[in-house]
Request: fold
Amino acid sequence: MNMKLASVLCSILLLQGCAAAVVAGTAGAVTAATDRRTIGSQIDDNNIEIKSVFAIKAISERAKEANISVVSLNGIVVIVGQVPSESLRQQAEAALKDIEGIRQIHNQLRVGTNIGMTTKTHDVWLTSKVKSQFLTAENVSFNNIKVVTENGEVFLLGLVTSAEADLAVDIARNVNGVVRVVKVFEYM
Reply:
């Protein structure tokens, strides 16, 4: 009897995982389909981000002390986070220069101590607030704007019109808690 119960419970848990995978896959497909980038560009951006992680880890032992994130959108890369020295900041950018597909690098690393969990949590909250404002705004294609927040600074990336960019910056700038807005748009 216990064996049957265990089997049923395992089946239920596995099926729940399948349902979650189907929902996540469907959401990802819808997002990919409405993205202004080609599917190829979306895949290239994902590969750039993965290769960047390995390239930065390979630069030095000091890179382990840093907090570095790389975001790519249509081959335009933004590096955000904190590093202990200007030298490491420059090394991180140099490590990405040979990665195929990168068209431009915006090095937004800040020299200083790594941010703590409280700040990271606040950054996630700010990102959510900015994205929710985009959802309710007219004339902003929220699917085509990537929002990255690091230490209160909001970085906006996307393939947008000039009017969309201006509106997105204005929305982000007026979200309580945002320290600075950096636009890294590619204009259509």
The helical segments are 2-34, 39-57, 86-96, 117-136, 162-173. Residues 18-30 have pLDDT under 50 and may be disordered. The first strand starts at residue 67 and ends at 73. The chain has three domains: 1-34, 39-111, 117-187.
